[in-house]
Write a structure and sequence with these properties.
It is a single chain. By secondary structure, the protein is α+β, with helices and mostly antiparallel strands. It contains 8 helices and 6 strands; from the N terminus they run H-H-H-E-E-E-E-H-H-H-H-H-E-E. The chain has a 6-stranded antiparallel sheet with strand order 4-3-2-1-5-6, with no helix packed on it. Helix 1 packs antiparallel against helix 4, helix 4 packs across helix 5 and helix 5 crosses helix 7 (176-207).
Length: 263
């Protein structure tokens, strides 16, 4: 069997296997990118009627009167409910004017995104003790060979500008297999260098010993005050906000993080 034939089938097999891992990462990443918008749509199903004569119930009172959620989302829309999230277990939409539960978040949506996040984090290597770190590490290594073997297969047998042009430039007017052949070679050649650097650095990260400098986290102690007053300060400093999300502050910490979205 000729060496070029061996390289071709090895190249094709590795591309198909590594491509499955890359496809899974891309699909799960795209789905997670739209999780916030889908959750906002889920909350919009439980629109509440605002009234100028009926003030909002203080958030501190709402938090004290029920099981503490893991995170809270407040939206600037007067008709939007408060969103109390209890991990992946449950999401409750609260009427900010009466304190009553307006509805529950879709369980199927929560289960779906929990599964997607699990697969994405596992394959992404965030779960360092899981199986995904070994898979993505092997896929990185295979991808380096894929990119390295590409130039050998792309190199034209006849060294003329006409043959080089066929693999360096897109050729309009082609269809079917000739078009696919041209697109594959042109895209592969022009993307080879950045993809090689990305894949090679990924191999080092997957199989190398990563050392990180020590970090010190310092937080200024804040005087005791209600969450309602803190939110009022944030709203005053950030006009035009669309939503504010935060986790409940821990008893031993004097500050906590709020994520503000301006759309």
């Amino acid at each position: 069997m000729r060496l070029r034939t061996i390289f071709f089938w090895t190249h094709l097999t590795i591309g198909s296997v590594a491509g499955l891992v890359i496809l899974m990462m891309c699909v799960t990443g795209i789905l997670l990118a739209f999780e916030r918008q889908i959750n906002a749509w889920d909350a919009s199903r439980y629109s509440v009627a605002s009234s100028q004569n009926l003030p909002r119930v203080p958030l501190d009172r709402l938090l004290q009167s029920r099981r503490p959620p893991s995170s809270v989302t407040i939206r600037s829309d007067a008709n939007a409910p408060l969103e109390f999230v209890y991990g992946r277990e449950r999401t409750a939409f609260i009427n900010p004017y009466s304190g009553a539960v307006a509805g529950q978040g879709s369980k199927s949506i929560r289960r779906f995104f929990a599964t997607v996040e699990k697969w994405h984090r596992a394959l992404g290597g965030e779960l360092r003790t899981g199986f995904g770190r070994k898979i993505t590490g092997a896929a990185n290594l295979l991808f380096v060979f894929l990119i390295s073997s590409g130039p050998y297969l792309w190199w034209p047998r006849k060294r003329s500008w006409q043959h080089f042009k066929a693999i360096l430039l897109f050729r309009p007017g082609l269809s079917g297999r000739p078009r696919d052949w041209n697109w594959h070679h042109v895209a592969g050649i022009w993307c080879a260098v950045p993809l090689f650097l990305i894949s090679a650095s990924g191999v080092v990260m997957s199989y190398g010993t990563a050392t990180r400098p020590g970090t010190i986290s310092r937080e200024a102690s804040a005087s005791p005050q209600s969450i309602e007053s803190l939110l009022a300060k944030v709203e005053a400093q950030s006009p035009g906000w669309r939503s504010i999300n935060f986790s409940l502050p821990q008893p031993d910490r004097g500050s906590f993080l709020l994520t503000l979205d301006r759309g």
